[in-house]
Write a structure and sequence with these properties.
Layout (H helix, E strand, L loop, with lengths): L20 H17 L3 H20 L4 E5 L5 H8 L5 E6 L12 E5 L12 E7 L2 H4 L5 H10 E9 L4 H14 L14 H10 L3 E7 L6 H6 L5 E7 L1
Parallel strand pairs: 1-2, 1-4, 2-3, 4-5
Antiparallel strand pairs: 5-7, 6-7
């Protein structure tokens, strides 16, 4: 199979399967609305992730091996490679790619069909971007512990809720952003107390906590403010 380089790749190569053509069309319309209304999660989050990885690269002082858990369309890994912040990446999620992509810089693994076993500290950095709440705030302990065991540093981006109404806003945003896919819409999200309790329970070394992350701009920032977004950096 002919290899594709980074410049040839486009996000639609990595789309999830949809339950119907109607769902796919509606999802594309939602995507266009998000772009117009300032809800492009990737574009708004990337500067934060780029900054943290740049800092960790200076500490490690070598070519970085990335583990992207719940990678979606692999946007973060691909752009980090383009920026030359990481050298190689393993990207995992639980769906089939529409197109088979072979690239020497990164590899996609469907963890629902391939139970890969990774070694302790095999990776330099792992990223978990808006994934843990979909697993479940009371069910993600095992996966988080595994990821922290196989990577020297872990960067986690997730949500805080502040009661019933903010929870429903987060649920609506998750439904809107994941429409037509089989991604679980959680019933609850982390509070800062529950997050710190989880960190303590798993005996993780949280070296940095960033609150009020501006994930959205424009209209979407008025609906879902930055207080709902946080980034945590864990050192193994």
């Amino acid at each position: 199979m002919k290899k594709k380089n980074l410049n040839e790749l486009r996000s639609n190569n990595f789309m999830r399967s949809y339950s119907s053509t109607k769902n796919r069309i509606i999802s594309q319309l939602f995507y266009i609305f998000r772009k117009i209304g300032g809800g492009d999660r990737f574009s708004n989050l990337f500067p934060y992730i780029e900054k943290e990885i740049f800092f960790l690269k200076k500490i490690l002082n070598r070519k970085l091996y990335l583990f992207d858990y719940g990678c979606g369309k692999m946007d973060f890994a691909i752009f980090l490679i383009k920026k030359r912040l990481i050298n190689n990446a393993i990207c995992v999620d639980n769906y089939e790619l529409q197109n088979n992509i072979i690239n020497k810089k990164y590899q996609y693994i469907n963890i629902s069909k391939n139970k890969e076993i990774f070694k302790k500290n095999q990776f330099d950095i792992a990223i978990i971007i808006d994934v843990l709440h979909h697993i479940g705030i009371n069910k993600c302990e095992k996966e988080l512990k595994k990821i922290c065991n196989i990577s020297k540093y872990v960067i986690i981006k997730d949500h805080f809720e502040y009661g019933y109404f903010s929870r429903q806003i987060l649920r609506l945003s998750d439904w809107f952003g994941n429409y037509g896919t089989d991604i679980n819409i959680p019933k609850k999200y982390f509070t800062e107390f529950k997050w710190q309790k989880l960190i303590k329970k798993l005996k993780l070394n949280q070296i940095k906590m960033i609150k009020n992350v501006s994930q959205h701009k424009g209209l979407f920032s008025l609906i879902l403010s930055s207080k709902h977004q946080f980034i945590s950096v864990i050192k193994n």
